[in-house]
Write a structure and sequence with these properties.
The complex is a heterodimer of chains A (about 120) and B (about 110). Helix content of chain A is about 0%, strand content about 50%. In chain A, strands 2, 4, 5, 6, 9, 10 and 11 form a seven-stranded mixed β-sheet that branches. In chain B, about 0% of the residues lie in helices and about 50% in strands. Chain B is built from no helices and eleven strands. In chain B, about 35% of the residues are buried. Chains A and B meet through β5 and β10 of A and β4, β5 and β10 of B.
Chain lengths: ~120, ~110
């Protein structure tokens, strides 16, 4: 059974930084691209970033480009999202999701989500 | 960016009713569309991928169709446990984009 567990969320001031982690189990992590999706309170889903299975390539939504960095450690079966220069509108629940062998694939498993609150 | 629209934004139907949601892409996405179900406080769940393929373990009352820019999601007989918000999403090209969602309630 695929398991994805996010951690690292919390409350941070505008301009601050936070690093989210997503621990994966139940599948061969290094074979799959991985994605972050976020959901602001009461709003819809927004794709944030994707990284290829090897970690060689990554892509970002314009709203986070230059501020967020996605990475992975295949030896630890863990996905990361480094979030810098956080803004109030980054407040959201962040989900990690399992992508396909290639990045253009549906997200077939999701973590439970972790709340990030950016507030002074 | 490929903008996704959904209609209706919300609907109320009776148990046993047939429910249909439409999703439109601003650019041709071939078959690269998925449908997700999200219940309050929970993570989204993949129901349909490649426009019409049912994810393993998903009840057969859920179905999808379409290609290009126009897609349809159907619940053939609405059940109480289907109360949720449903999102379409294109994965044909980056950035991947979601529709705004359709909230389904029981009348």
């Amino acid at each position: 059974e695929v398991q994805l567990v996010e951690s690292g969320g919390g409350v941070v001031q505008p301009g601050g930084s936070l690093r989210l982690s997503c621990a994966a189990a139940g599948f061969t992590f290094s074979n799959y691209a991985m994605t972050w999706v976020r959901q602001a309170p009461g709003k819809g889903l927004e794709w944030v970033s994707v990284i290829t299975s090897s970690g060689a390539s990554s892509y970002y939504a314009d709203s986070v480009k230059g501020r967020f960095t996605i990475s992975r450690d295949n030896s630890k079966n863990t996905l990361y999202l480094q979030m810098n220069s956080l803004r109030v509108d980054d407040t959201a629940t962040y989900f990690c999701a399992k992508d396909g062998a290639v990045i253009a694939a549906p997200f077939d498993s999701w973590g439970q989500g972790i709340l990030v609150t950016v507030s002074s | 960016d490929n903008q996704m629209t959904q209609s209706p934004s919300s609907l109320s139907a009776s148990v046993g009713d047939r429910v249909t949601i439409t999703c439109q892409a601003s650019q041709d996405i071939s078959k690269y569309l998925s449908w997700y179900q999200q219940k309050p406080g929970k993570a989204p769940k993949l129901l349909i991928y490649d426009a019409s393929n049912l994810e393993t373990g998903v009840p057969s009352r859920f179905s999808g169709s379409g290609s290009g820019t126009h897609f349809t999601f159907t619940i053939s007989s609405l059940q109480p446990e289907d109360i949720a918000t449903y999102y379409c999403q294109q994965y044909d090209d980056l950035p991947f984009t979601f529709g705004p969602g359709t909230k389904v309630d029981i009348k």
